[in-house]
Amino acid sequence: MELSKRQETILEIVKKEGPITGEQIAERLRLTRATLRPDMAILTMSGMLEARPRVGYFYSGKKPGQELAEKLHQITINDIKSVPVVVSEQCTVYDAVVTMFIEDVGTMFVVREGGLLEGVISRKDLLKTTLGGQDIHKLPVGVIMTRMPNVVYVESDASVLEAARKLITHEVDALPVVRQVKGKDDHKDLEVVGRFSKTNVTRLFVELGEGAY
Ligand code: ADP
């Protein structure tokens, strides 16, 4: 991030004299507080300066961008996940296509009783099948889905950064958000509790840009 000459000067003043009020910074620069407001906003939003009510500004010691990186580590999947759209393994390809349109999602999760994860079905899986000439009114999604243990998933307490990295590494659009539950014979099952997709990442990106997070 490029700082203007004036912003550099403000940083120097706060480094030396902080905590210092906006009023005092304005006096040092012989400017009005209103003139300085956009600069102060940039310096606090980037995390370089911190503002405490009734105390003033002080230097955080953080590099530009560090604040954002910290947020991406701190925000968890639980904070931003969506509701999952699920179908059963016996659901036909035709019904899955209809559900995809009605629910307006690109990826659906295939579950068995108890919402336990069995597989994932994406737009392209369905498209490929419709090109294949099979009877989509009869063919169950269980035959064409990506099946466990090949499903990439994430747990609620994972950071958004970790989950977004999985989307990129595995070249997929969405991950089921799961909770580990004990199944038969101590076998670990995964209960689907949410959906994390590229849309969640884009929405968060916008919110971060607008300073809403
Ligand atoms: P699209 O098919 O709409 O481009 P994806 O890129 O997500 O969507 O899917 C590509 C392939 O990866 C599909 O065969 C799909 O079944 C599979 N897939 C999708 N999500 C996952 C996931 N979380 N884990 C494993 N495989 C997945």
Automatic annotation (TrEMBL):
PROSITE patterns: CBS (PS51371). Residues 80-136, 145-211 form the CBS domain. InterPro entries: CBS_dom, CBS_dom_sf, Diverse_CBS-Domain, HTH_11, UCP026546_HTH-CBS, WH-like_DNA-bd_sf, WH_DNA-bd_sf. The keyword Ligase does not apply. CDD domains: CBS_pair_CcpN (cd04617). Keywords: CBS domain. Pfam families: CBS, HTH_11. This is CBS domain-containing protein. It comes from Desulfallas thermosapovorans DSM 6562.
